[in-house]
Amino acid sequence: MRADDPSDGEAADDRVREHDRLGSSPAEMPAEARDREECYRDLRACDQALPATRRSDEPRPADVGGRWKWKGLELDPEANRIADEGLAARQAAEGRDADGNYGERGLTPGMRRIEAELEHGTLVPDTEKLALKSPDRFKEKLAKMISLEPDVAPAGHAAKIHDGIRYTFIFADQFYAAGVRDTENRLVDHGYKLVGRKPSWLGEEYKGINSQWRDADSGQLFEVQFHTPASWDAKQRTHDSYEKIQNLATKPEERARLRTYQREIVASVPIPPGALEFAPYKEGI
């Protein structure tokens, strides 16, 4: 599925099972549940219609002598070890045990509890699959950070990777602004601390709101994105082009073509009412 998706397999959909318990047909569901059920099924249909992002000819990362190499990027053995430790810490914070099962503790069970409290909106399909950034994408990001600021210790860079764990909430346009406020308030009520918010609804190549939070239990940073069905669809459709733009091997003319493609896709995404009311935020500023 997505490039960061660790698996392609068919998994049971927790939200579908929950909605099935509410009633066997939409007519039997409360109005609130019908709204969320329809939103979820529309997202599922869109997600299944999108092609896989990893091409069969894309070279796999190499890990030789403790070094990690991929797409012209490299981590030395020490930085690679730090990346592995960072990944292990995020896996523990996300909430799965050694067998891949969830209990009460952890970020993903926490996000599911918040989702259940919302009047409108839902987490995206396959949230459990997408919650953790894949090891190679995590290491790719760390390598880029080190190349831009080589004087900063790799451990310092790794600690700042806020999307090693990430979640996305979707709201229909008419509920978007209220839904984002409601979700942020519930995140705070559940003990998570907002450390950053980046609204991008006026962006030419991406629309949505990305926010960064800190988990009090583990101390780990994690990302929460807020989308409408249209902005989520645009993000999925431009994912391949985004990855190629970020690839150091992509030629300038190809990068320009891909940016034009992204702008064309994103231009069709309507700005939901109230979306422009959200201000950027950074902890300590």
Mean pLDDT: 83
Main β-sheet, spatial strand arrangement:
4-5-8-7-6-9
The total strand number stands at 9
Order of helices and strands: HHEEEHHEHHHEHEEEHHHE
**Which structural class is indicated by helix and strand composition?**
alpha+beta
Q: Tell me the distance between the termini.
A: 38 Å
Helix content: 40-55%
Domains (count): 1
Helical stretch count?
11
Could you name the ranges where pLDDT drops below 50 across 5 or more consecutive residues?
1-57
Radius of gyration: 19 Å
Largest sheet: 6 strands, mixed
User: In percent terms, what proportion of residues is strand?
Assistant: 5-15%
- Shape designation: globular
Written description of the protein model:
- The chain is α+β, with helices and mostly antiparallel strands and 285 residues long.
- Helices cover 45% and strands 14% of the residues.
- The strands form 2 sheets. Strands 4-5-8-7-6-9 form a 6-stranded mixed sheet. A 3-stranded antiparallel sheet has the order 1-2-3.
How is this fold's topology laid out?
Layout: H1 14-22, H2 31-49, E1 62-64, E2 67-70, E3 73-75, H3 77-94, H4 107-117, E4 122-123, H5 127-130, H6 135-148, H7 154-159, E5 166-170, H8 176-189, E6 193-199, E7 209-214, E8 221-227, H9 229-237, H10 239-246, H11 252-267, E9 281-282
Parallel strand pairs: 5-8
Antiparallel strand pairs: 1-2, 2-3, 4-5, 6-7, 6-9, 7-8
